[in-house]
């Protein structure tokens, strides 16, 4: 029963050499490249505090699950254990499910759900439970199966970008899509053309995948959070902003609510 916990028990081994840098960490670069998953989500929780308070507190589940993805991925690449692989892949599956339940456009709901997001969420959770069981049975194909989930997500993002009237939101969507393509290129090259990159003495593309896919994932979550408010609660007047400077569009994007900013200003004025 302890075999899945043993180092090297996973059928997946990425291009980076094992134990080249540290005798206790299998893939050193792939392990520590997950640090972005642990450092940035707390910042996003702070930036989305008004969104979580006034629109949807579930947004913080997305940021928390991204941290779980980072921790699980680091454990997997440090040990190359089967249990580490499953934790990594299942964390990705569940963060995708959370985003689907929260942001899937209501106008595309199948009629069986009667425009009820709760019913859609129950169906998605049950489907994810089934997928979790299948992932445990056939762990070798999990990575390729998870990659296919990106296609409908970015398809719907492209549809929403065509509908938006905000040039700033559109630019962020284009950057998000470009980074996602770059991430997939890194993943495929590391997985399929490892010998070529070993000959070039650069077996680190999977580490770049971690960086790029994190940026693409949290940016997509920001965009869908904006689309969700625009579609279902347009009176809240969502605003896409950047931290630490709003005029620097390569900073950290987040969504705030204009209607509540006005309320805050009125309260501050009365207090004066």
List keywords for this structure.
mainly alpha, disordered C terminus, 272 residues, 68% helix
Write the layout of secondary structure elements.
Blueprint: H1 28-32, H2 35-47, H3 49-54, H4 59-79, H5 82-103, H6 117-137, H7 142-163, H8 167-192, H9 194-199, H10 205-232, E1 238-243, E2 252-257, H11 258-271
Antiparallel strand pairs: 1-2
User: What spatial order of strands do you see in the largest sheet?
Assistant: 1-2
Rounded Rg: 20 Å
| Envelope shape | globular
**N- and C-termini, Cα separation:** 66 Å
Strand content: under 5%
As a percent range, the share of helical residues equals 55-70%
Which stretches of 5+ consecutive residues score pLDDT under 50? 264-272
How would you sum up this structure in a few lines?
The protein is mainly alpha-helical.
């Amino acid at each position: 029963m302890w075999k899945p916990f043993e180092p090297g028990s996973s059928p997946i081994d990425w291009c980076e050499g094992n134990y080249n840098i540290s005798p206790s960490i299998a893939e050193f670069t792939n392990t520590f490249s997950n640090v972005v998953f642990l450092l940035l989500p707390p910042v996003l929780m702070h930036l989305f505090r008004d969104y979580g308070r006034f629109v949807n507190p579930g947004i913080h589940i997305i940021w928390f699950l991204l941290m779980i993805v980072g921790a699980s991925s680091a454990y997997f690449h440090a040990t190359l254990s089967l249990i580490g692989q499953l934790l990594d892949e299942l964390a990705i599956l569940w963060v995708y499910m959370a985003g689907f339940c929260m942001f899937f456009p209501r106008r595309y709901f199948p009629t069986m759900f009667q425009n009820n997001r709760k019913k859609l969420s129950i169906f998605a959770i049950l489907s994810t439970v089934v997928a979790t069981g299948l992932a445990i049975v056939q762990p070798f194909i999990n990575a390729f199966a998870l990659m296919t989930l990106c296609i409908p997500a970015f398809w719907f993002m492209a549809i929403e970008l065509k509908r938006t009237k905000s040039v700033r939101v559109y630019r962020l969507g284009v950057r998000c899509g470009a980074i996602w393509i770059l991430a997939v290129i890194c993943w495929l090259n590391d997985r399929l053309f490892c010998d070529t990159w070993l000959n070039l003495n650069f077996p680190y593309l999977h580490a770049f995948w971690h960086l790029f896919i994190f940026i693409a994932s949290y940016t997509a979550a920001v965009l869908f959070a904006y689309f969700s408010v625009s579609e279902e609660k347009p009176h809240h007047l969502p605003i896409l902003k950047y931290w630490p400077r709003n005029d620097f569009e390569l900073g950290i994007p987040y969504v705030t609510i204009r209607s509540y900013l006005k309320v805050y200003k009125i309260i501050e004025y009365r207090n004066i």
